[in-house]
Amino acid sequence: MNIGIIGTGGIATSAHIPQYIAAGANVVAVMNRTRERGEAAARQFGIERVYGTVEAMLENETLDAVSVCTPNALHKEQVIAALAAGCHVLCEKPPAISAREAMEMLEAAKAANRTLHYGFHYRHRSDTQLLKRMIEAGELGHLYAATALALRRRGIPGWGVFTDKELQGGGALLDHGVHMLDLALYLMGYPKPVDVIGHIGQYLGTRPGVGLMGTWDPDTFSVEDTARAMVKFENGASLLFDGSFMANVGPRDTMRVELRGTEGGATLFPLHVHTEAYGALFDQTPAHLEHVDPYAVQIQTFLDACQREPEFEQGEQAVILHTITDRIYGEA
Amino acid sequence: MNIGIIGTGGIATSAHIPQYIAAGANVVAVMNRTRERGEAAARQFGIERVYGTVEAMLENETLDAVSVCTPNALHKEQVIAALAAGCHVLCEKPPAISAREAMEMLEAAKAANRTLHYGFHYRHRSDTQLLKRMIEAGELGHLYAATALALRRRGIPGWGVFTDKELQGGGALLDHGVHMLDLALYLMGYPKPVDVIGHIGQYLGTRPGVGLMGTWDPDTFSVEDTARAMVKFENGASLLFDGSFMANVGPRDTMRVELRGTEGGATLFPLHVHTEAYGALFDQTPAHLEHVDPYAVQIQTFLDACQREPEFEQGEQAVILHTITDRIYGEA
Amino acid sequence: MNIGIIGTGGIATSAHIPQYIAAGANVVAVMNRTRERGEAAARQFGIERVYGTVEAMLENETLDAVSVCTPNALHKEQVIAALAAGCHVLCEKPPAISAREAMEMLEAAKAANRTLHYGFHYRHRSDTQLLKRMIEAGELGHLYAATALALRRRGIPGWGVFTDKELQGGGALLDHGVHMLDLALYLMGYPKPVDVIGHIGQYLGTRPGVGLMGTWDPDTFSVEDTARAMVKFENGASLLFDGSFMANVGPRDTMRVELRGTEGGATLFPLHVHTEAYGALFDQTPAHLEHVDPYAVQIQTFLDACQREPEFEQGEQAVILHTITDRIYGEA
Amino acid sequence: MNIGIIGTGGIATSAHIPQYIAAGANVVAVMNRTRERGEAAARQFGIERVYGTVEAMLENETLDAVSVCTPNALHKEQVIAALAAGCHVLCEKPPAISAREAMEMLEAAKAANRTLHYGFHYRHRSDTQLLKRMIEAGELGHLYAATALALRRRGIPGWGVFTDKELQGGGALLDHGVHMLDLALYLMGYPKPVDVIGHIGQYLGTRPGVGLMGTWDPDTFSVEDTARAMVKFENGASLLFDGSFMANVGPRDTMRVELRGTEGGATLFPLHVHTEAYGALFDQTPAHLEHVDPYAVQIQTFLDACQREPEFEQGEQAVILHTITDRIYGEA
Amino acid sequence: MNIGIIGTGGIATSAHIPQYIAAGANVVAVMNRTRERGEAAARQFGIERVYGTVEAMLENETLDAVSVCTPNALHKEQVIAALAAGCHVLCEKPPAISAREAMEMLEAAKAANRTLHYGFHYRHRSDTQLLKRMIEAGELGHLYAATALALRRRGIPGWGVFTDKELQGGGALLDHGVHMLDLALYLMGYPKPVDVIGHIGQYLGTRPGVGLMGTWDPDTFSVEDTARAMVKFENGASLLFDGSFMANVGPRDTMRVELRGTEGGATLFPLHVHTEAYGALFDQTPAHLEHVDPYAVQIQTFLDACQREPEFEQGEQAVILHTITDRIYGEA
Amino acid sequence: MNIGIIGTGGIATSAHIPQYIAAGANVVAVMNRTRERGEAAARQFGIERVYGTVEAMLENETLDAVSVCTPNALHKEQVIAALAAGCHVLCEKPPAISAREAMEMLEAAKAANRTLHYGFHYRHRSDTQLLKRMIEAGELGHLYAATALALRRRGIPGWGVFTDKELQGGGALLDHGVHMLDLALYLMGYPKPVDVIGHIGQYLGTRPGVGLMGTWDPDTFSVEDTARAMVKFENGASLLFDGSFMANVGPRDTMRVELRGTEGGATLFPLHVHTEAYGALFDQTPAHLEHVDPYAVQIQTFLDACQREPEFEQGEQAVILHTITDRIYGEA
């Protein structure tokens, strides 16, 4: 398969390109608006052609699929262009910056009859997949309560455009917390939200301080450092969400999903399962869980899907996801 | 001081009566609708007189103060009667079963010009008080995010009337979670709530199972086993709440309040404080914190207050607290 | 029910008598060859009559059941006498000191049509019972490998007659290790042994040294301090046994049974279960397992059995058990 | 010294060849029936000549010593051929697949007057050697009880011919457990066995499941996955053995030897020593034990021995070892 | 034996009197300048006679031995009076408040030919005695370096006269640190000091603060809260000492002696021994060390000594000990 | 800047040269009396010129700064020569081997008006610098007690000239312990010493034994393996020092500085701070402290200083430091 890469920033060169190559796919072209960056990536991986615009790449190449690895605000336009050009698309997370955009992307996929995947790599961990199998087998029963936590103490990224509201659409929620939010929804089966309230704020990011993920510029920090929410679903369940780029928490950062069901409960990460059986309470932990590179699984999963009937499920989930994020941001 | 005790159930005999005696107060009468129970308590502590109604006790005794230790639905009437009889009142938690009731109790206290305290004993722990002093000294700055957790795995009380909605008004929220909800609000300075959503449910309590706090009757279980909420406040802060009488969680039950402020963050219990100073992040833990019996402090605090100008602050907080619980229950 | 107690040593006064009383049974008589000891026990528990011989007690009392708590070599004769007198019998462990004796006791029970129980209290722990339920539900599949360990570092009892071969029949195996040996067999369903080899030795008990269970007399130490064996069963399974009264092991003493089955494995104590499911390996641990007094359960189980059809299962198991111990001692 | 290598599989290229080179020996030729494999190994290490048969190598080369690294069933013939050609021989473990073979190899060594070593690398660990020195100094006294454990949870090798009964002679016992069995015997001074019973079985290896050491083929799995035994020795001591390729055990795999002596006891790995002295019990642990590569020591030990009088001790031990394994397999 | 008790404060009633009684000695009289205190102690233990002065007690009683449990500054006079009256004497620690006093006490003991013991109860712990036996057997070789630490974070006693320089002679050194100083010297064999420098200071005790051993009065705090020293001995060894009543240290208080010898090193408490043997380094810890009450051993040791030839060794050690403390205080 | 390197042993090639290069400085020449060693270093780092004497290097090069990385006894002469040639100098620790030498070096720096730094890299750790900032802000108040520990169990270096008294001037104190001694003094603000006693000895280094830092020659071991001291300062504070190259201590080696002040106390390494505040005791630990390479900071600090007014503070501290070491060695 011929693959094109749109955007050559961090995730493209650390994950997408090398994993496509490892999976035996043919990465034939990269696109970056800043030509030198595109050329550097091409040189690093021995890719033949470099483009400065999406249009040029799509016109000149015969691509089976593309990965979109650009800032969030650019996803929608680029994804739709690639779909329209007949490509299957794997777009990095978050899908978009609003439910409206996600809906347009879904519709474009259906119109083009092409698979649309999003890069939520936490889904592809082996512990996540084990829990998913257990949930689908009914081990936890009806899931009625979820908590998604994505809390960093001093984790404002010091590189890229992560603090630029216009390019990224958001910070603690849209770019960071969205990992755990999606994961909880994915494990719950993406129930339909009926009520949402949210709390979005800037408390620490706009003043200088210790940076554990590099040094950021507080003067241009325009995204939220704090995002909290509660979501109620049509099936009676609820979800509590708490996310931060920077907050006075400790002792370690937290990336966690907790689920409570009528038959059992579970926590990620690591995976713990809590059940009642034989008149006793049990705590279960997987022993010797196989380690896999989630990005490798993600790329392989996408490549496999490209060989089958087009899949729109992730596109539909993205609409639900952004319906929630829109309401947390108060934009809908 | 002459003290009367209304209700002689658990908390009255394990905490109120012995602590009044230890503090040197004069417990002269107890009241219980079931006469033998009242007499048993009186015998145990050498209390002279026993009454079967509040009215009888208030008419026949000259009391300085009373403790109200009856089921929650009875608080309002009994507290108002005692205040009207000129008594200072210490009423067990929760204050009432609705904001309307709490308001009536506050107004009665003001009308009678008598102190009205509520029995939230977690406030009187030495770690809570230490954190309160630190917050008041500005160590945490503006508190903009709180989380209150009160999660039991199999903790439906197997005694008393705790599973009776009519007498108690609620379970996971009103009787159990209210401890952590009040504690978070108390430490935040009881800000004014402006938006609340809640999730109330019965998932595990209505079927048989392992009981770690005795054996309950699932057939008459009429309170919620699950309560979750998000509250937004006028000052921009928010609070996430999660409570259960019984849920598939583990490995240990959780009673916890987490606070995030602009200058520092803190977690109870135990107390950890997280700050930034000297260009570094610090985790602080109190060493050798003095152990005190929170009930002893509560009784002494009440007795001291009875000697001063009447206090209505706790009465006012109760109105805010029940405004929130009403909205979580969807009753307002 | 009217109960008689034969022998008033340690286990009788620490467990049998108080548990009968707690269960509401009527302990009407005790027997001890040393009259003062019998009278001391009777005084301690308010028991009416004391006898110096089993015959005298059985002749003069109308007993429903008796507990036999004498040295091992006396069990057979006393149990048979009690059964012949129409009593149900609970005999302390080990059942006897040979398979031949155990067989005579079983036959006597059948002839008298009375229940015969043996006091293996480890069977009555809540973790043992939980594992038993799991095994019976098939969680472990076919059990093909067992290990029973009963290793003390310096645990020669400094009281009683535990080091007297003539009265006790043995030490590390017959009196101490027999607990874990029975437990493994009980959990395996008491399969039929077909091959046994054993190793019995005196290495440390016959010379002075540190005593962690009191001071013993090395000069009269006549039982084995070391017992090891392997047993093969008709169903293809095998059992490894290792026991000591005193050995250079550490850091802690070991009382443990390990079981390996085709579907899962388990270890006691504490209980851990190891399985494969959902393409993963799981370690399961019971959380919050209810604590029970195994002696209380044992006495209640015996009293309950006395109300039903006579039970000979434990009598039959005792024959198998002593068939094994005989062969380890090389006596059969 | 000129060295020839027979067999170029795993242990030859990961240990023997590089360690010979590191020790300054001259590896001049390798032999592999599959020519390309031999050539690959030669290329990797810059070895000059490659042969397809043992005979060709021995005829054409003037070798001082050879290492035999082929499947177990081939050891006997190849070792004898090399000895007959005047070479000292280091043969990988297990020595052979029966006592008869081991005896023939020993006799060949004596006839050729050449040193015969076997590759039990656990003997060469620094903790093993430390314990050996302590035992020889009498620290543990007479060793009367040993336990050898080699338990893997899901450790059927997914490579090589380890599951092929014909080529390997066995699995859990002969190829894996033999490490701990030899180690226990080595530390005990290789006492003479007088009685053995064993349990050999296939329970989990013949059906699919999780593989922690690669993926094996359950359909062609022809060795035992379970091996257990008890051995009694002429000097009164006994040994319990438990081994598995795959079993429902946990939480970690176990490679352990436990020894109990009249003056002290010890456990490997890691090394703990338990003694009584000064009227107290002591637990001793070596601190900062030097880490050595056991294979480096093994090769150096062999090279050193080649400079001295021929050594037959390991050849004699191999006969004892296989006398035991024969009886466990029931072949003798 | 007839025993008299001089002083009835803490240590007399918690340790000396009950241990004499437990050992079967006959406590016939107590003395306390405050008559009610003497009578209270007598009543508590059923002692027949109470005196208000030492002189009165010694005149009216025929005593075999006395315990002196008064403030340190009174020891000398009372001990000498008791010796002169023909009593063996057990005097609480510290022996005295100067070397001159200790010398007078020793001379009085010799003149009276009576045993003089001092109450350093740390010497009588079972771990201390085990180490003493090991040192005497040569396990540690020549002891050339010692460290004695007695550090409390907030441990100024809130009772008694411990902060009164005149009555006690000192605080962090003379009353508290002297325990570890004596212990180190005792284990080293009380070598002769040849050079001492010390640091005595008041830093925290004279101002208010948290008190973990009760509330003290900073205004009358007249002893040192800090004492540090280095001592060099005639045999080439040295000792570092560090003691505090109150200091900003953590996380736990420290009572420790460390010894370094040419053959081994040791630390108390708990006991760890570090040696080199068999070409390896070993860490040894006693397992299952018998727990004894050091006071019980101390009293029994004293009573035993009273039956033998008089012992002056402890009296001589006291002179050395106070030679050191004098020089640390700068008084000699 | 042009840099010359005097001495190309361990610290020069592992730290100084690569850090100068990383910082962008121009290392133009190296000097080593053994020409091949100098050339090897030059080759490794691509340095142009190699000299066999300091004089030759200084004459032929135009250097801005030099690093002196030779044995301690050579420091004085080489540093003074370099200063005289107009170079700024960074000299490895210890500064010299006597206070007299340190004074001459300081005077030479002042005469040449060039910066003189010493390579105490522990000062440049991020935890040390954090504590330094806290001390300067008054968090610990007046520091009145310090302890410096540098204890190795078997840490005599097996390479270089570390055991040669003539070249190094000392061992446990001058070469190893001096790190912690300097660190304590640096944090205390280098107070003026007024009284010192020391203990210098050879106990284990002169006989063979286990070596954890390589194999040394006990026959030529001429430095002390043990150094202990107490220092009293003009400001009333004191310092206890304990150092060893080899001693029977455990379980781990110790590099530690403890400080006690009137407002707080601290321990390095790792950093713990102990304070009293809000009526409670606090233990503070930095979380997520940035890891820096102390050598990188040291070189950068030196390069920065070369751009400013010459600094003599470290030269002055060196005089104080060696005044103390001289007195411990008894040489002054």
Give an overview of the whole structure.
Six copies of one chain form a homohexamer. With 332 residues, the first copy, chain A, is of the alpha/beta class. Chain A folds into two domains: 2-122, Rossmann fold; 126-291, Dihydrodipicolinate Reductase, domain 2 (2-Layer Sandwich), CATH 3.30.360.10. Helices cover 36% and strands 26% of the residues of chain A. Chain A is built from ten helices and 14 strands. Chain A has helices spanning 10-22, 35-45, 54-60, 72-84, 99-112, 126-136, 165-168, 172-188, 294-306, 313-329; strands at 2-6, 26-31, 49-51, 65-68, 88-92, 116-119, 143-151, 193-201, 226-233, 238-244, 254-261, 264-268, 272-277, 280-287. Chain A has an eight-stranded mixed sheet, with helices on one face. In chain A, strands 3-2-1-4-5-6 form a six-stranded parallel sheet, with helices on both faces. In chain A, β11 (254-261) and β12 (264-268) form a beta hairpin. In chain A, α1 packs across α9 and α5 runs antiparallel to α10 (313-329). The mean pLDDT of chain A is 95. The interface between A and B is large, with 46 and 46 residues.
Low-confidence stretches of chain A: none
Number of helices of chain A: 10
**Major β-sheet of chain A, in short?**
8 strands, mixed
> What is the name of the CATH class of the largest domain in chain A?
Alpha Beta
Tell me the radius of gyration of chain A: 20 Å
Report the average pLDDT across residues of chain A: 95
Largest interface: A-B, 46 and 46 residues
Order of helix and strand elements from N to C terminus of chain A: EHEHEHEHEHEHEHHEEEEEEEHH
Helix content of chain A: 25-40%
Characterize the overall form of chain A: globular
Write down how many β-strands of chain A occur, each being a DSSP E stretch of 2 or more residues: 14
CATH architecture of the largest domain in chain A: 2-Layer Sandwich
Terminal residue distance of chain A = 40 Å
